[in-house]
Amino acid sequence: MEALETLRTALPDAARDIRLNIQSVLKDGALSEPQRWGVAVASAIAARNPRLRQAVLAAAASAVDAAVVEDARAAAALMAMNNVYYRFRHMVGKPGYAEMRAGLRMNRLAQPATNRADLELFSLVVSVINGCEMCVRAHEKAVTDTGLTAEHVNDAVRIAATLYAAAVSLEMD
User: Fold this and answer.
1) How far apart are CA 112 and CA 2, in angstroms?
2) CATH code for the domain in which residue 165 is found
3) How many domains does the chain have?
């Protein structure tokens, strides 16, 4: 947690609200601790800021099992591929593309290191950050179909939004 606190205090004054939000979104709420940290890791990787990623990975390593971190990393990698592919299909909007086989391997979604609900939650927040509407809709449905609630989704997206804002803020100076 020390690395994350150091990073949080390094945010510029313009990001004062982000400093406060980092503290609040990573505490309590509907998400379990593994869900919170998995969402944080997946979001930090998707935000593509090395300082943020390293700080969140260090904090997560001391808070949760390595399987949570690995599922979050897998979600970030898979969604980096899927969000580009499915966002293209959605943007173009031609039925012919929707009928074509994607042919992209996604075995990890069927075989998570933790559980399906959490991996879908991690995939959802990466898809939100990457702006893929089709993937956001699909993963939100998968998350709620596993029994998680809109409150879980909301808390996860709050974490993603805050960490993305932290990544942007770290690049202001």
Assistant:
1) 29
2) 1.20.1290.10
3) 1
Q: Which structural domain range is residue 158 located in?
A: 2-170
Which contiguous run of DSSP H or E holds residue 139?
Answer: helix 133-145
Report pLDDT for 1.
80
User: Rounded to an integer, what distance in angstroms lies between the CA atom of residue 103 and that of residue 85?
Assistant: 11
Reported pTM: 0.96
Q: Give residue-wise pLDDT tens across range 43-61.
A: 999 999 999 999 999 999 9
- Pick the catalytic residue from 57, 121, 132, 134: 132
Q: How confident is the model at residue 109 (pLDDT cuts 50, 70, 90)?
A: confident
Give the side-chain half-sphere CA count within 13 A for 161: 10
Residue in 26, 44, 135, 160 annotated catalytic: 135
Report d(CA 58, CA 71) in Å as an integer: 16
Active-site annotation holds for 18 = no
Residue 135 among the catalytic residues:
yes
Q: Which residue has the tokens 């593994």?
A: 34
